[in-house]
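Task: sequence in, structure out. Protein: PEP-CTERM motif protein.
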Amino acid sequence: MNSQELCCAATEDDSLSNSKWKSIKRTAAYSLAAGAANVGLSSDVEAAPVYSGIQNIAIGQLGAQDLNLDGDAYNDVLLKNYVFGGNYQGATVNYAPGQLVGFNAGLNYVSALSIGDPIDGTTVGPSFTGSMAYGNNANSQFDSVTDAYIGLSFPINAVNHFGWVRVDVDNAAGTFLIKDWAYEAEPGVGIAAGQIPEPSTLGLLAAGALGLTAMRRRSQPNA
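Result:
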């Protein structure tokens, strides 16, 4: 969208009172601020993460849950709560070239990320699948966690996007709760674990305008 330039010309007139002139200047300032907020908002929205909102999806034992992170026709990641010789939780990114943030220690494992940890092309890998928790395996990082993050990449139109899924896992009890998730809408742009869209400048401007209106009403003399 082409940016538009606001031009204001005002000629002082003897019949225009000082109070009216101040009012015009305030109105022009509000218009300029609103225009600037709209320009900033459009660029922020393009780069902001897309957030699911709180979901709280419980995966029962012997079950699994596919997640469609971006709402298209394809499920992006499968989270598993299986039982074979013991309770097992794991994750698989469904389509190449997607991968999990993880590590290899003889087998592939998913890393339990903390809020703020980076998820990008330097941290995903080495695999699209991995174990989260299994019995007394010392390499498992999701044995008993609250608000741990799974980091991943997944393709949209064959191009990788980065995202996270926040989970609670209790391996001994066999419980697995998916709390929420987010992904970066811009392909190839990293995201931090737990990152969600920030409040828009326009929303803050609107809140400020409401506050100004309330102040004006309070300052008006009673009729």
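The radius of gyration is 25 Å.
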